[in-house]
Amino acid sequence: MTASLDLTFTLNGDAKTARVAPNTLLIDFLREACQLRGTKRSCDMQICGACTVLVDDRPVSSCTTLAADIDGAVVTTIEGLGGPDGLDPVQQAFLDHNALQCGFCTPGFILSVKALLHANPAPSHEEIVEHLNGNLCRCTGYHKIIDAVESLVRP
Amino acid sequence: MPPDVPTTGNERLDKVTGRAVFASDITVPGMAHGRILRSPLPHAKIVKMDCTAALALEGVVAILSGEDLADLAQPYWGLYFNDRPVIAHEKVRYVGEPVALVVAETPAVAQAALDRIDIDYTPLPFIDNAGDAIAPDAPRLHGNLEAIADFYFKGQARPVSGTNIYQLYAISTGDTAAAEAEAARVFEHTYTFPGIAHYAMEPHCVTAAFEGDRLTVWSGAQSPTAVQKVLSRVFGLAYANVQVIVPHIGGGFGGKASVKIDPLVAAASWKAGRPVRVALTQEEAMLTCRRLGASITLTTAVDANGIILSKRAAILLDGGAYADTGPAVTVKAANRVIGPYAIKNLEIESRAAYTNTVPGSAFRSIGGPQAVWATESQMDEIAAALEIDPVDFRHRNLLPRGGKVLDSLRPLDADISEMMGHAGQAITSMGDRPAAGVAVAATDPGVLPLGGALVRLLADGSVLVMANSADIGQGVRDVLRNVAAKTLNQDPAAIRVAGPDTATTPFDWGTGASRSTVIIGLAVEDAAQDAREQLLALAASALEIPLDGVQLVPGGVATGSETIPFDRLFHTAFGIDSGEIVGRAMVTPSRKGSDFATSPLFWETAVGACDIALDEDTGALAVTRFAGVADIGHAINPAGAEGQEEGAAIQGLGHALYEHLAFIDGQPVNATPIGYRIPAAGDVPHAARTVLIENADGPGPMGAKGMGEGGLLPVAPAIANALARRYGIRLRDLPMTPEKIWRALRERDSDVP
Ligand code: FES
Ligand code: FES
Question: What range does the domain containing A104 cover?
Fold first, then answer.
């Protein structure tokens, strides 16, 4: 492999530096170098949203993003939500509405919803469904996921 | 006793925080990575394989290929036949079959090495559909194989010697010819159903580690003891030396049932002398297994009053290159094509044939969706021809509760007519129009009543429930926790459900056939009862009071006014405040208090009703309202039960409208996440309702029945029936794509004189 790149970024609230090969994918960087395995790999081709993380509050498919692209950015993974005081409201809503079964899609959905509510704090029902179209779940049938998001928007 | 508790399991907390460890999250020190070279041809001889250049690549550790099989104790394995080599041996039988597995220091190196393997094939004639497979001059995939009896399922397959047919199953009652002769009308239709991908969001992932004669496997396996059994045969190891550990599983639906890539990955570790991890891509998962496609011809005779006199069914299933559990699918498709109807004269022949395509295997309600698609579509076709309302036509023919689908089977334990009423009401509660399409189903889960559990009450009052029941998202851990909490009268928060781990947890047959709530639920209930009796006896003797003077309360035992925490009880009894009580149980076919002699142990019933909207210019169909009804006896984990029904219905929607794993000239043409569409959030009905019927009349704890499969069954025929009723078109070939709908609309309009 040719030269490495030096990255400076914020990961789940902490300032970080790292050296990566230029062709390292963000998902591998997060799962292997950072040991953050809450980011899941499913389709590996930007179809399913399982690998979604937030880069500067926008949802990004980490399976098709280079680690190099997070230089200077603020990155949030599922491990960065919530804190000592408890869960993030989106995590809590997913629990309260039983919006998960196997849970493999769940980190991606939760981060995708975070991004939606950041960009649009009061989405309509249609906007919620449209946004969630970018994430696939084979277990739940989506109703409870949609309900969870609705509960955050129209309590 | 505490009431049913809302789910509070830690596993769920782990899943929303990203802490849950899935099969694909496992790492083992010293682990290497495997990538698989797959056959590009549907049927071919391997004439040459040269791995020199690949082995020379820096970072490559070892390459497993067919040449290594000679050193294995049993190089071919299977559930009904030992028809499948651990890795392709001398020939390949489908596009995607593993032919070499490169083990390397990183996945990237392993992937790069695949290109350096030099293979020559001589193509052989192939067959890519079941119709061709049963032609007299069809090329054969396998020689005559010896059926293995009672290996995974009870019984054995009945192949037709000299053909590709690996299972033939027939049902015959009464006299269909006589019934047809005296019938007012006889209807014959053929319905087809494609192969369908499981598409669990987590593709198969296995990590295997050989240490001397000990093998440890971390696998997203629904049936850990089946994996253990097959691995022990393949490598000639004692069961005790094969440990299968199941982390969280990112979806299964049958695609991770029985045994899948475990022998392949274990063989790679055996060859490499290192722990090896193989994580399939989603495309590879789609080349690993699929639901069996089917063609079903139904010939149904009715009298002038709309009473069904007889039914003949010819079922032909596309089994793919290896039998896997296809023989069981074949049997179930036959039983499930009857429906919950009183039909005296039956003639059913169900066959499955090998084809040069992805191996067929179990998928949520084996054989059920294929059978119910045919039967429930035809029910409406007959009703329409007789000008009877389809609900009324079903009422005329439904079995009552206690009626018999077949004499050999347990009487029906649900009231389908009542369930149809609930479905109709649920639809009108969501909108004005009555349901446009309805379908019903009654299926006989193949539940093997064999599985155990340990319930360990520890000195601090926490409880470990140890069971080999895999949680594939259906919430079985919550069910087991609630059962143990009730029986021991403890706070569910004090209970942890451990396992599956074949080294520490008692045998269980596996997760499938809607059996865990009933069988492992009972095992946990019995084990908790055993622990309870031991605890009360211990308390009575240690405290020197009569047995009926003590009872269990959360955190300890109560003697009249005093509550003694468990650690104090243990201190009094054992001299120190340590120790534990181990409750144990093994549910077997002769369990006291259960009637496990007749099959099925319970019926899985379902009614679905829907309304649809259609854009007649494009053929785009949307389900606007959907209602699903299931009789589940008792919901031990209500949220989980509802989620199972909803999820099953949306999988059924995928089967109905989008999904079809297609082969052209033996080549899979859409086995990728881009080419294969599963339902997304925007596809689900705007209004949907699930009705759970609970009469506490099931064989499981608190009267529960198994569930989780039925919700899938009525969806496709209900939609097809709605299309016929509202738009005058009848589709008999799934999936009902916009193109097929559009063509049917054009045909309808051109038929108008
Ligand atoms: S894994 Fe990245 S979008 Fe599916
Ligand atoms: S919960 Fe299993 S994929 Fe969504």
Answer: 89-153
Domain B451-587, CATH: 3.30.365.10
pLDDT at residue number B2 = 29
Shortest CA gap A71–chain B (Å): 24
Model confidence at A119, pLDDT cuts 50, 70, 90, reads very high
- Pocket of ligand 1, candidates A42, A105, A109: which has the most ligand atoms within 8 Å of its Cβ, to mutate? A42
Q: B473, A130: Cβ pair inside 8 Å?
A: no
What percentage of residues in chain B have a pLDDT greater than 70?
Answer: 98
Q: Which helix (H) or strand (E) holds B474?
A: none
Percent of chain A residues topping a pLDDT of 90: 95
Same domain, A112 and A58: no
Coil/strand/helix, residue B313: strand
Q: Does residue A60 sit in the same domain as residue A37?
A: yes
Contact A136 B640 (CB under 8 A): no
pLDDT in tens, B289-316: 999 999 999 999 999 999 999 999 999 9
For residues B184-206, average pLDDT: 98
A12 CA distance to ligand 1 centroid (A)?
20
Q: Are A16 and A65 in the same domain?
A: yes
Give the tens place of pLDDT for each residue, B678-700: 999 999 998 999 999 999 999 99
| A30 and A50 co-located in one domain | yes
Q: Which of B111, B158, B141, B434 has the alpha carbon at shortest distance from B279? A: B111
| pLDDT tens per residue, range B93-128 | 999 999 999 999 999 999 999 999 999 999 999 999
Report the atom number in ligand 1 closest to the C-alpha of A42. 1
How many other CB atoms sit within 10 Å of the CB of residue B300?
A: 26
Predicted confidence band at B3 (pLDDT cuts at 50, 70, 90)? very low
Q: Which among B190-194, B634-638, B696-700 has the top mean pLDDT? A: B190-194
Domain count, chain A: 2
A21, A49, A80 — which closes off a domain? A80
Among the partner-chain residues B18, B22, B681, the one whose CB lies closest to the CB of A142 is: B681
Mark whether A28 and A94 lie in a shared domain. Answer: no
CA–CA min distance B355, chain A (Å): 27
Cβ–Cβ gap B680/A133 under 8 Å: yes
Q: Read off the pLDDT band of B753 (50, 70, 90).
A: low
Domain boundary among A80, A103, A134: A80
The partner residue sitting opposite B646, judged by closest CB among A106, A136, A140, is A140
The number of the ligand nearest the C-alpha atom of B250 reads 2
Please tell me the distance between residue A12's alpha carbon and the centre of ligand 2 in angstroms: 24
Cβ A106–B25 below 8 Å, yes or no?
no
Contacts of A102 in chain B (CB under 8 A): 200-202, 248-252, 472-473
- Residues A26 and A36: their CA atoms lie apart, in Å, by 11
Bridge pairing between strands B60-65 and B98-104: antiparallel
The region, left, alpha or beta by phi > 0 then psi within -120 to 50, assigned to residue B313 is: beta
Is the pLDDT at B675 greater than 90? The verdict is yes
Q: Say whether B451-587 and B408-443+601-751 share the same fold.
A: yes
The residue ranges of DSSP E strands in B30-152, in sequence order, are 32-38, 44-50, 60-65, 76-77, 84-85, 91-92, 98-104, 118-123
State which CATH number among 2.40.10.10, 3.40.50.2000, 3.30.365.10, 3.10.20.30 fits the domain covering B408-443+601-751: 3.30.365.10
Domain ranges across chain B: 408-443+601-751, 451-587
How far does the CA of residue B685 sit from the closest CA of chain A (Å)?
9
Q: Helices B416-429 and B390-397 meet at what angle, rounded to 10?
A: 160
Tell me, using a 6 A CB cutoff, whether residue A104 lines ligand 2. Answer: yes
Does position B430 have pLDDT exceeding 90, yes or no? Answer: yes
Name the residue of A42, A106, A135 whose CB sits within 8 Å of the most ligand 2 atoms, as the mutation to test its pocket: A106
Query: Does pLDDT of B5 surpass 70?
Result: no
Q: Are residue A96 and residue A140 in the same domain, yes or no? A: yes
For B133-150, what is the mean pLDDT?
95
3-state helix, strand, coil in chain B (%, to 5): 30, 25, 40
Q: Is B343 left (phi over 0), alpha (psi -120 to 50) or beta?
A: beta
